Amino acid sequence: MTTSFDTDQGAGVTAPAPAPALAARTRGLRKLYRSTVAVDQVDLDVPEGAVLGMLGPNGSGKTTTIRMLLGLVRPTEGEVELLGRPMPEGAQRALPDVGALVEGPGFHPFLSGRENLRRLASAEPHLSSSDIPTAVEAALERVGLTGAANRRYRAYSLGMKQRLGLAGALLVPRRMVVLDEPTNGLDPAGTREIRKIIAELHADGVTVLVSSHLLAEVEATCTHVAVLHDGTVVAQGELDELLESGSPGLLVSTPDGDKALEALQAGRIPAKLIPDGVRADLTTATAPQVVETLVRGGVAVHEVRRERTGLEDLFARLTQHEDGGEGLSEVDEVTA
């Protein structure tokens, strides 16, 4: 929701920072397959220029949500916008600016990788016939398939098929790229190459939506995260904010560790010594209260930062209710 302010208000009133522009959004998104609920009331925001990792176990609704975003599946209920266009009605206007690799690539098995890519390029609205050869060769080189370009697709390994699908998504400059499990079948070297491509797209201002179950890859490449579980978004926001919110600890760097520990304990703030300082527990105190207590105690504070939980731990906490734990029953949204 955007809040508007009257320009005649008195001085000293500061308007909040405007909400980030969105490359894609859903509201109340729901998809039923007969009696099976695949996606249920998903509100998803994909900020422009972000690399958003969509996380979730198998069957959590990731691919179904992506297919509805791209207009490949019509939602049972809810609204979808892609690059400012309602979907699927606006697919013809939005999709030329979107490159996508969803549920694995599909190409002609008896054609070579180059021939398959040329066929795909001929359907690109942003490519003229004279530009197709150059675009195809550039895409093949970008994903490391130039040496295998003349080999028939049926002889490709799973990783090579993924690379060719990615090449198809990158035939022309895009405003948004959607990748569903892009590292599936890739060896470590191939995974690093995909990570590099995603970083290059991000540097160019392209919005990237990545669906994955590889937590380490998401943590290494993404700026934002959305966690799906049982067809519902249980958390979304900036990755750094989510990781910091998952831990109630404040790490204080100080040469006066013993003195800091004594001051915090005197202020009834649980704490323990760590290398280069102390860790203060934030379950009963706020970060400003910790800093104030230390300063009043004459402790030299060099650095203060929130303790970050690992993405694996955060993911387990968010999806814990499946196993009877507390989990989260509502969307835990973190905004910058």
TrEMBL record:
GO molecular function term, any single one: ATP hydrolysis activity
Keywords, ordered alphabetically: ATP-binding, Nucleotide-binding, Transport
Protein name (Swiss-Prot/TrEMBL): ABC transporter ATP-binding protein
SMART domains (alphabetical): AAA
InterPro entries the UniProt entry points to: AAA+_ATPase, ABC_transporter-like_ATP-bd, ABC_transporter-like_CS, P-loop_NTPase
Domain ABC transporter as annotated: residue spans: 24-255
PROSITE patterns to which the protein is assigned, alphabetical: ABC_TRANSPORTER_1, ABC_TRANSPORTER_2
A Pfam family per the record: ABC_tran
Family to which this protein belongs: Belongs to the ABC transporter superfamily.
